[in-house]
Amino acid sequence: MPNPGFATTLAIFLAVVTATFLTYSEGAPRAFFVFGDSLVDNGNNNYLATTARADSPPYGVDYPTHRPTGRFSNGLNIPDLISEQLGAEPTLPYLDPALTGDKLLVGANFASAGIGILNDTGIQFVNILRIPNQLELFQQYQQRVSALIGAEQTQRLVNDALVLITLGGNDYVNNYFLTPVSARQIQYNIEEYSRFVITEYRKILTRLHDLGARRVLVTGTGPLGCVPAERALWSSNGECANELQQAATIYNPLLVQMITSLNQEIGSDIFVAVNAMEMQNDFITNPKDYGFVTSKIACCGQGPYNGIGLCTTASSLCPNRDEYAFWDSFHPSEKANKIIVKTIFTGSDKYMTPMNLSTIMAIDSV
Q: What InterPro entries does its record include (predicted)?
């Protein structure tokens, strides 16, 4: 005779599994996965022994909790704002112990500050989740979800998901231009290096596709020479640093070309190029048109343009973050992130190739 206690336990377990399955299958917001660097890291580096972290004040001063979370922002970052627009809760960092059960079905953020396309980028930060690590964790994530809802539903969840990957800036700032004469500068001129980086990026995107990603936003670099850190390091009167600007001008069109070619090879518009340089150029060139007082000076920092060192409690901190295009020496403010995300959703082909995110969502809802 069956054990009544066991039967009850089994029934409860099956009910939980069924409820979880229904939560996913009956029109829940699509899952969202994030890969990349500090522009999109929302706390993975908090769990790693690295100096590339944003888990102390005044980071997070404008976040809903007013506490640092590991986001390199005064408040919300780009993934948070995309989740908001999708009607979904923010994805948790993959290393966060709270990412279990139903929360796994929301997606996960694998990003880690300091990394690049190349594995030798950001070596000074030591223990960070380089892209091969992030993709390995994505595989592990799928195994964990398969145990929850089954392999077939997991594949569907991943195929239907939106993916954001943000890489490239550190391959210049924290590799090629890290020192006055770097190993990569000896090896390549800037055009050769950019082509090499794009070739390596293509391999990463192909691997992401192999792992089931079918809608992937791929952001280019911003105007690298115009961030406060580079103005402080390289310019004498506040102008954008020429060599870094040249690098971004070479890299971003190559990225669009590569994505177009990769989509043609696959036979579908899997990858969407996000022209972050054009988006940021708008408010860097004409800050007052976007309600900013300045796009040269960071809100938090020290030295010229607040572009030297880290943002800490000892830093100069602006009273109104919405007046600054840059929060710290490298990262946009929450308000600037909102402008970027709005353009991701509604921007013309000047900013989004081959289509914006609103168009993607309309196509995918049919």
A: GDSL (IPR001087), GDSL_Est/Lipase (IPR051058), SGNH_hydro_sf (IPR036514), SGNH_plant_lipase-like (IPR035669)
